[in-house]
Design goal:
It is a single chain. By secondary structure, the protein is of the alpha+beta class. The chain has 21 helices and 37 strands. The longest helix has 25 residues. The radius of gyration is 30 Å and the shape is globular.
């Protein structure tokens, strides 16, 4: 049968509640360290259920100090641990007694006068229930490993609870790209169990075509026509093999492969038929007639789904790369499409892709990238997994759009991203936790660090990607100083152990920066020091040592690893590997050296806030200047313009696809937003025009857009990262913002003007390359292109109330004490109304 329940995830929880309901009664579990309740299992309880009961007994003993017995009984008294079927007096529905794929993780915690029910629909659900009960009592497993386990000391234990729970996402994978060394496997699995990310429904979605070819190599050898036709030649097998999906024999063979897979793995929930990575799709006429690449991939997935649906099985596939755009054909309800949040083509946003696939009937999942070692190298505030605001926004948003499966590529790097992984685990189970992220973080720092919680809250603010971290010295200096203060306040060995892990992580981030900045022989020496430190600290699981050791030298041809020091050479024969514990003296030295080497930023100016209600600067009667120039930008560029005559078209010259390699990411999208004034939506911003006619082909085209009213408007120009140049007629009011939180998005060199209001004593800014010229054209500051930083410029008498120039800059220059608005000329400049005057 088809699992059509996937289309009704929104069923009210009340529909699955028992026929009767009771208000919870308090139950006392221990007094003065003496257990008052036994843990009870049914006579026919399985080994897994008995293990959950034993785990609960062990943890309750560690919490209270008392030894809890595990006995056999009917559960009418005591802490009853078992399947819903073991406790008929609960009168639970069939969804508990015969759970389908979506009910396998449902559990019940209910206290009553004589005890407590810890019941689940399955053995895994019972495990979840045990760990949730312990969480309710104050137990935490924040990161993997004994160091990050928090066991409260509570001689008196009581609980009042009546809760039925099941996960928001039916699959909640936070997994390690590159894998990990064996020491990390058990701690990781324990973390997943204790934070309820171990899922009952396993979704297979990985690239599969290569594996299918390998499994059916004999048939493919006999039928080369099953392979894709590319440039007149049939391709061969391999990891990136593509198939001729229009071939009915090929589709029949893949269906046969799936059936055999489930014959061998009868307990498996799904099989993947996701295409192999990269291009090379079939160019034969029959495949072309099938439609888009997505249409072809879905057709094959649908054939498999029809065959395996009677078994209650699912088919997994990504919306990724060439098959990320939604198809024109319906998707079988047993096909789960996991939309990738990177490597997508066609120019659509994630929301548009989700909407399009959903409209065709797909069951949705998300293929996320919380951390990829080659992207972020375990550095602080570099990965999505370290962006708490991103997690709190996207996990509920994806869920609201129908996603019920999450597969998040991550890393064994609990130093920079552990708090994010922990927060994600809470929200993936219950999206209602998203508004509570601040409370979750507060609970973390207080329980993990006790009296040192305040400096450690500062430490984790330095790791939060959602906050700007512009100066690495300041970021690292803040981390070191927070750790030093936390060490002074810490009062227990387990807190010191956690701080030691984070000291080792901070030292790693310090060493990586030294390596990244070094040149010549010093680079090789810094690289070796980095790898030695990373390996030696590997069991802390603060960084993904295996990924770094395996990959970094392969991508940096300026360094090398001797053959006898390779990542896979055992420690006893490897001169770079040592498992010697770090001594207290070494840890103290790391902190002291870090504080000395990483000064904090001390601003000699006070940032000034300005409004974003902009008007033309013409009332200031600023003199004309030699026009500046603006480079291109990638992603989203934002411009502000003033529409004087809504009847006249706003003309822009748009050139998309300046990076030829990325010209498969869709047309440039231009949107015009009215700011303020009458609004159809009641919001400040109203979209009044849209254009998506400019292809990414490197050719300039003119776009004409119309506003509806006179006044301030915002223009957003968005591409797929392939770089777009925007131009307009000289004198057209057009201004760009470059503030601390909204830096200018521009590539290449640029020259623009900004205004210094009368009375300004100092220009405060942040930047890294270019010259700041005063109104007389003289250099007031030359920025160091090697390292961006904060700077201030004294404003001489007569130089205020005038235009200044940023000349031949590279990257963003953020203005902090003057209006953060830049333009090519005085005629094009818009300024805050309080600066330019109200006469517009």
């Amino acid at each position: 049968m088809q699992i059509r329940l996937f289309r009704t995830f929104g069923l009210l929880l009340a529909a699955l509640l028992p026929a009767w309901a009771s208000s919870a009664e308090p139950v006392r579990l221990a007094r003065d360290g003496v257990p008052l309740q036994a843990i009870v299992v049914a006579p026919d309880a399985s080994a897994a259920v008995r293990q959950s009961a034993a785990t609960l007994a062990e943890c309750l003993q560690r919490i209270s100090g008392g030894e809890f017995d595990v006995t056999v009984g009917d559960g009418a008294t005591g802490i009853a641990v078992g399947l819903a079927a073991h406790f008929p007096e609960l009168r639970l529905s069939d969804a508990w007694l015969q759970p389908g794929p979506l009910d396998r993780e449902r559990y019940l915690l209910r206290s009553h006068a004589r005890g407590l029910y810890v019941a689940g629909a399955t053995e895994l659900a019972i495990e979840h229930a045990v760990w949730d009960l312990l969480y309710h009592l104050g137990y935490r497993q924040f990161f993997p490993g004994r160091t990050w386990e928090v066991v409260p000391e509570l001689r008196d234990l009581s609980v009042t609870i009546d809760a039925e729970r099941s996960p928001a996402y039916h699959s909640r994978r936070i997994w390690y790209g590159f894998g990990a060394w064996d020491y990390a496997d058990q701690p990781y699995r324990e973390w997943c169990s204790r934070n309820r990310t171990a899922s009952a429904l396993a979704l297979n979605t990985g690239h599969a075509y290569g594996g299918i070819v390998s499994a059916k190599r004999t048939q493919f050898a006999e039928h080369p026509e099953y392979f894709a036709l590319v440039d007149g030649q049939r391709q061969s097998g391999g990891e990136n093999a593509k198939l001729c999906i229009s071939n009915a024999g090929l589709r029949k063979l893949v269906v046969e492969y799936a059936a055999e897979y489930f014959d061998r793995n009868p307990d498996a929930d799904s099989v993947s038929v996701d295409p192999s990575d990269g291009g090379g799709w079939c160019q034969c006429a029959a495949c072309a007639e099938m439609g888009s690449v997505s249409d072809r991939a879905v057709t094959l997935a649908n054939d498999v789904a029809k065959a395996v649906a009677p078994r209650g099985k699912l088919v997994g596939m990504y919306a990724y790369a060439y098959h990320s755009p939604p198809p024109a054909v319906r998707v079988h309800p047993n096909v789960v499409i996991s939309v990738a949040t990177a490597f997508i083509k066609g120019g659509l946003t994630i929301d548009e892709i989700l909407t399009g696939w959903s409209a065709q009937g797909a069951t949705l999942g998300i293929r996320e990238y919380y951390s990829v070692n080659t992207w972020d190298r375990d550095l602080p505030a570099r990965a999505r997994g370290g962006d708490l605001a991103y997690l709190a926004r996207t996990i509920p948003d994806f869920h609201a759009r129908g996603a019920r499966f999450m597969s998040a590529e991550s890393s064994d790097n609990w130093g920079p991203n552990g708090l994010g992984y922990y927060v994600a685990s809470r929200i993936l189970w219950d999206v209602g936790e998203a508004p509570r992220v601040a409370e979750i973080v507060d609970d973390f720092v207080r329980r993990a660090f006790g009296p040192a919680w305040e400096p450690m809250a500062d430490f984790y603010r330095q790791l939060d990607r959602a906050r700007p971290h512009l100066v690495y010295d300041d970021q690292m200096g803040g981390m070191y100083r927070a750790l030093a203060e936390a060490r002074r306040r810490a009062d227990r060995p387990e807190i010191h152990a956690r701080l030691d892990d984070l000291i080792l992580y901070t030292r790693y981030a310090d060493l990586y920066d030294h390596y990244a900045q070094a040149e010549g022989p010093a680079r090789q020496a810094a690289f070796e020091t980095l790898i030695r430190h990373a390996y030696r600290m590997r069991t802390s699981m603060m960084i993904h040592a295996k990924a770094l050791y395996r990959d970094l030298a392969a991508r940096d041809k300026r360094v090398s690893i001797p053959a006898d020091a390779s990542w896979n050479v055992p420690e006893e024969r490897n001169p770079w590997k040592s498992s010697a514990p770090f001594t207290p003296e070494e840890l103290q030295q790391f902190v002291a050296e870090g504080i000395a080497a990483r000064p904090l930023v001390e601003l000699d100016f006070e940032p000034v806030a300005f409004s974003d209600t902009l008007v033309p600067a013409q009332t200031l009667c600023l003199p004309s200047v030699t026009p500046g120039e603006l480079g291109a930008g990638r992603g989203e560029q934002t411009f502000f313009t003033w529409i004087e005559d809504p009847q006249a078209a706003l003309e822009l010259q748009i050139t998309g696809g300046l990076i030829a390699h990325y010209r498969d990411r869709g047309n440039v999208r231009i949107d015009v937003w009215q700011l303020g004034g009458a609004s159809e939506t009641g919001e400040r911003e109203t979209k009044v025009a849209h254009d998506a006619s400019v292809p990414p082909d490197g050719v300039e085209r003119t776009v004409r857009l119309h506003a509806r009213q006179r006044g301030l408007h915002k223009i957003t120009v968005t591409d797929g990262g392939d770089m777009t140049r925007v131009a307009w007629a000289p004198g057209t009011p057009m201004t760009l913002r470059s503030s601390l939180d909204e830096p200018l998005n521009v590539s290449g060199r640029w020259t623009l003007y900004f205004y210094v209001p009368p009375g300004t004593k100092a220009i405060g800014l942040f930047g890294g390359a270019g010259r700041i010229l005063n109104p007389d054209g003289q250099p007031a500051l030359v920025l160091d292109q090697r390292k961006a930083g904060y700077h201030s410029i004294s404003v001489s008498p007569g130089h205020d109330g005038r235009l200044w120039k940023i000349d031949r800059a590279s990257g963003a220059v953020r203005l902090l004490t003057v209006p953060p608005y830049l333009a090519r000329s005085s005629e094009e400049l818009l300024l805050p109304q309080e600066v330019a005057g109200a006469g517009n």
